[in-house]
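Board notes (copied after class):
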Amino acid sequence: MGSSIALKGAFFVAACALASPSAQAVPLSDPLRFFEGRTESIGVMKLMMKRPFKVRSIGRGKIISDGSLLLIQQVHDDGQPMKERTWRIKQVGPGKYAGSMSEAIGPVRIEQVGDGYRFRFKIKGNLAVEQWLIPDADGNSGASKLTIRKYGVKVASSDATIRKLSR
């Protein structure tokens, strides 16, 4: 089933995944800098009619000369070979960001909504991804809730934790 493989390979897409939201979530003063240095995300992916599996990524990010974020993640999904995912994201307005991700088809759009950040993009298999990143008050960790839909029907979801390992 090709779309199952596409889901497994493409779903833990968001620049990372964050885990249990803090009661004291706060927006970040410079969200792109959160991903500067090393980050780690750990979570569980649930695919429709499949067993849940662990997902983990290690990211290395840097702010490049034009002010945008270049983030390269090593993605380790249980039962799959390691792969690399690349993000390029820049601020395009107050609370708005846009860019690309190697598994996305078309642009990645990110907007700040309250204390969180909503990512939206499409991936192979006519799948629509929405990911919410909710930073914890410490500014060094947070929660991620990812939902993947096909024709409006939820086919996968993930809850994860992301934390900053270094600056």
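Comment from the instructor: The chain has one domain: 2-164. The chain has a mean pLDDT of 86.
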